[in-house]
Specification:
The chain has helices spanning 15-29, 31-34, 67-71, 78-91, 96-116, 118-121, 125-134, 145-162, 171-188, 195-205, 213-241, 256-270, 282-296, 299-316, 326-332, 345-360. It is globular and about 55 Å long. By secondary structure, the chain is an all-alpha fold. Helix 8 (145-162) packs across helix 10 (195-205), helix 10 packs antiparallel against helix 14 and helix 13 runs antiparallel to helix 14. It is 61% helix and 0% strand.
């Protein structure tokens, strides 16, 4: 592979064909999901049996202390709850609306994933998007998965717009735009809290931090805006609305063994390993693979590999059991490990797989 030219010796891909092919792949992967009914267990709280989403007069309650009681939510996801309003308005108890919405969001996420890494992977960026779509974590029919798809969508959109250097000519617009997507990510799911760190990790990895002092200050203002938005969200959630319990530092009943087992489960699901074989060892396989990518690459490729790995780790961090936040630790100590938690970190995994293939090409 010719350094600095990711398209050298790579097959060319006509972009006009990629979008429909990618959409067809998404539909094929979610084919069974498209025709599945709402689940009578989990989905009933968000569609079939929740009377609150049937009355638009309840919409202001998305930002009230009674949110959790009214909408039967144990956490604070107002944007996701708003999507259930829309789904019920247009489709009632028919799950078709949510299924189509899931197809559209996964398709857009795959396109954004490829476009963000186009400079590093060239035409193979589209192969990384195929890897992402094929991950079994997207096969679930639970409505709850949409929270993770939505937060991934807004993180990728925010990063994509953050990349538009023309926005630096209008720093207020730049900060407002990226900050708005940070808010949308947080209102989709609390894992949006890692959005500022994801921006910084990819800016360093893709060498996008401006060299001019004037532009660098404007870039820094964007990080400050995102950090301020995150702190404001935390204040509103824990001190005003008080959803999910009061904020307290500390762990509940988390143990080192429990956290390690959680990471092993995530590694096994992230790598799409089938069957029980290799479940305990997949974490070490991924660690060795990541270390090999950092060792075998050089220059910009090594930085990009580090950024991909950072995206994976940051995406998993909120559900890793490592954060000393009492309500979160209490929830995770119940043994909740779900493939939907890997929808956001799966972006970094797809990137690093694409990079490995590019280096081996």
């Amino acid at each position: 592979m010719e350094p600095g030219n990711p398209d050298a010796d790579c097959p060319t891909v006509p972009t006009r064909w990629v979008y429909p092919v990618l959409l067809a792949l998404v539909v094929a992967v979610l084919w069974d999901v498209l025709f599945s009914p709402f689940l009578p267990s989990g989905d009933i709280y968000h569609a079939l049996g929740n009377p609150s989403i049937r009355d638009w007069r309840n919409l202001p309650l998305l930002f009230s202390p009674s949110y959790g009681f009214i909408f039967w939510e144990g956490s604070y996801h107002p944007l996701y709850t708003f999507s259930t309003f829309i789904n019920h308005f247009f489709f009632g108890a028919n799950p078709a609306g949510f299924r189509i919405f899931k197809v559209a969001v996964l398709w857009i996420n795959a396109i954004l994933l490829a476009k963000v890494c186009r400079k590093e992977l060239g035409a193979l960026a589209w192969l990384a998007s195929f890897f992402y779509v094929l991950n079994p974590g997207h096969h679930s029919i639970l409505m709850l998965d949409m929270k993770d798809h939505m937060v991934t969508l807004f993180c990728l959109l925010g990063l994509s717009l953050h990349r538009r250097s023309g926005l630096l000519k209008h720093p207020l617009r730049h900060c407002a735009t990226v900050g708005a997507f940070n808010i949308l990510a947080l209102f989709s799911k609390e894992t949006g809290v890692v959005f500022p760190a994801l921006l910084l990790a990819m800016d360093v990895a893709q060498e996008e931090i401006p060299r001019q002092a004037r532009h660098r200050l404007r870039w820094l203002a964007c990080y400050c805006t995102c950090s301020a938005v995150t702190l404001l969200y935390a204040f509103i959630r824990f001190k005003v609305i008080r959803v999910g319990g009061d904020f307290q530092w500390g762990y509940s009943s988390a143990t080192v063994g429990g956290v390690l087992m959680r990471w092993k489960e995530y590694a096994w699901m992230l790598a799409s390993w089938s069957g029980p074989a290799g479940r305990d060892g997949m974490l070490y396989v991924l660690a060795i693979f990541s270390g090999y990518m950092l060792w075998s690459t050089s220059g910009k490729s090594r930085k990009f590999a580090a950024g991909c790995i950072a995206w994976m780790l940051l995406g998993i961090l909120p559900v890793s059991g490592l954060l000393p936040i009492e309500p979160l630790s209490t929830y995770l100590s119940g043994g909740s490990v779900s493939p939907r938690y890997l929808i956001l970190p799966g972006v970094g995994f797809a990137w690093v797989l694409g990079l490995g293939l590019r280096e081996a090409w």
